[in-house]
Each structure stands twice: as structure tokens, then as C-alpha cells.
TrEMBL record:
SUPFAM superfamilies (UniProt xref): NAD(P)-binding Rossmann-fold domains
Biological process per Gene Ontology, one example term: fatty acid elongation
Gene3D superfamilies found in the cross-reference section: NAD(P)-binding Rossmann-like Domain (3.40.50.720)
Family, as annotated: Belongs to the short-chain dehydrogenases/reductases (SDR) family.
Entry protein name: Short-chain alcohol dehydrogenase
Gene Ontology terms, MF aspect: oxidoreductase activity, acting on the CH-OH group of donors, NAD or NADP as acceptor
Amino acid sequence: MAQYDIADRSAIVTGGASGIGAAIAERLAAEGWRVVVSDLKRSAAEETAARIGGGACAFAADVADESQVAALVDFAVRECGRLGAMVNNAGIGEDPSPIDEMKAEHWNRIIGVNLTGAFFGTKHAARVMKAAGRGGVIVNMASVLGLVGFKAAPAYTAAKHGLIGFTKAAALELAAAGIRVVAVSPAFIRTPLIAGLEEQVMPLHPIGRQGEPREVASLVEYLVSEEAGFLTGATYLVDGGYTAQ
Ligand SMILES: NC(=O)c1ccc[n+]([C@@H]2O[C@H](COP(=O)([O-])OP(=O)(O)OC[C@H]3O[C@@H](n4cnc5c(N)ncnc54)[C@H](O)[C@@H]3O)[C@@H](O)[C@H]2O)c1
């Protein structure tokens, strides 16, 4: 259990039904947070919430739809107590498409989920955190592709670079309200998102393997804790040396 006071505090994890999000939800629940597992996929979110226990509940929402994100945040406050942490984790990968052939709908959907979705999450979390007057923490799930480029993923790379920039600006603005905003930048982590790419991405990590979802979750748990009270505006790598080369 956490060594800090999280009584009556809820944490929302978007994209919480799978991969990194599910590991974060599980880790926060184990530390005593009241977790709202949110996902596009309702039944998968319900299964994850039931599996992790600790009073976790599920809420279906598409992060690219502002009204659904607003409803998610209001549900968390109503059902699970003051919002202490918002983890904007939901994201989608990009099917390779040459830039000169890329459809605007493709670009807009990748940006809409990976970047605008985190803006909506930040906006509505800040709304209720400010109203409660006791601060909070917002974690944006970026990527090493928020720091370096990657061939065949231009929209995803743009979204994650944008998310790191947004995190800095939001941290500056929300610091006065006691709200910390941080980003996390994993390299390739073993989840359904990169299924089939293992052989291709493994050699990119000097440490010689992909990361595990729990290795991202432990960093996020630290970032939302009071131990991390001086951390805001930065992105934290969990990348097996990917960007050190
Ligand atoms: N796996 C990696 O290698 C890796 C590396 C760097 C960053 N990331 C980022 O980590 C986050 C989680 O990725 P993952 O690997 O766990 O993926 P995943 O595919 O295992 O899980 C993503 C979850 O998000 C949900 N989701 C997708 N679109 C959504 C939407 N519009 N609204 C709500 N939920 C939605 C999916 O249903 C799924 O449950 C993403 O933001 C991803 O970009 C992943």
C-alpha cells in the first residue's frame, strides 16, 4: 500500500483495458487508489476492473469525443471520490502509409486519439481538480516517438511530439492550482499495440529486449505519488536505452 494519503481519491486510466493502461490500473489499485478503468471497449474495461479489484470500476468512453471524456470525469468524481490522478493513456498505432498518399481522415484520427484525447482528459481533469481546490496529477502517455522520428509513423510521431509540448504548457499553467502535469515516454513495450513487430523493434533497444507494461506502470505510480511532488512539465523515459544512441 502507498505510504502517502490517497483516502477517497480516485484515479482515471484511459485505455485501461489493455497493455500499459491495464498494468497502470492494476498497480494503482494495489497501492490503494480507487481506479476508474476507462476504455473504448466496455466489456474489456469491465473485465479489467473486476480482475484488479480494490473497488475499481469501469466506464466506456472514446477519448476523442469531448462529451464522453467530460462524462467520464464526472462519473469518477461522483462514484469514486475526488479526482487525484488522470492518466491519459489511450492511444492507437499507425498503419504505414506513405505521406504523399495519406488520407486526411487517417491523420485526423491518429491526432484525435493520441493528442486531442489527452487535451480533453487534461481539460476536464483540471476542471474538477481546480474546483476541489486540492491539486492533482495528470500523466500523459507519450512515447520515445515524441522525442525522435520513426519512419512510417508520421502522424503518430507528430501526435506524441505534440503531447510532450502540450504537457510542458499545461504544467506551467496548472502549477498555480497545485496540479502537476508530466509525460511518460516508453520505447517498445510488449502489448497488443505492437503485436507482430517484435523482431523488428527488439534490436532498437540496447538493453536487448522490449519493455514490459509493469515497467511503465511502476514509473507512473511513482509520478502520481507525493514522493514526486517536485516533478512537473517533463517527460520521463522508460526506453531500455533507445534514445541514448
Ligand atoms: N506498446 C508500446 O510499445 C508503446 C510505446 C510507447 C507508447 N505507447 C503508448 O502507450 C499507450 C498504451 O498503449 P498500449 O501499448 O498499452 O496499447 P494497447 O493497444 O494494448 O491498449 C490501448 C487501449 O486503448 C484503447 N483505446 C484505443 N482507442 C481509444 C479511444 N479512442 N478511447 C478510449 N480508449 C481507446 C484500446 O481499446 C486499448 O484497450 C498508448 O498511448 C501508446 O501510444 C505504447
